[in-house]
Amino acid sequence: MLAPTWIDTLVHESHKPTKEQVIKWVIMLDRELPAGLQLNAVACLSAAVGKAAPAMVGTGGIDASGSPHAGLPWTGCTVLAATAAIVKTVRATALTEPDLLVADMASVAQRSRVYDDYLAGLARLQDDDLTYYAVSIAGPRPRVDRLTGRFPLLR
């Protein structure tokens, strides 16, 4: 995953509603996956994005009881549903767009129980042979909207 240029200059705008943010983040899932696999894909892609773009994660907070709470993405994250074929097509298109942060989860990732086995399995497959369960796209709002704006929310 290549880091786009906006990551280094991202201005923390946690005071604005997500629809007013200059950066938009979406995760598009295969709508036919069982809920457990969908949740796993979202969790894994969120970790990948948090590592690649730590400035997207806000500071933690303390509740009135004094209990700490982890920082969450101040950009928000929209979760969309599509067919597996559309997820793959949107991923391919997003990779050609400048300044988008793209992360994906291929089916080989969820079939592997050992991370090195996942990497080895991935290395053996051509892109045409991969099935994508999910794709995460973050970047300038107009570019992300152009790719994903017509797809429904995951319900």
Automatic annotation (TrEMBL):
Pfam family, one: DUF2000
InterPro entries found in the cross-reference section: DUF2000, Pep_tRNA_hydro_II_dom_sf, UCP033763
Listed name of the protein: DUF2000 domain-containing protein
Natural source organism: Actinomadura rudentiformis
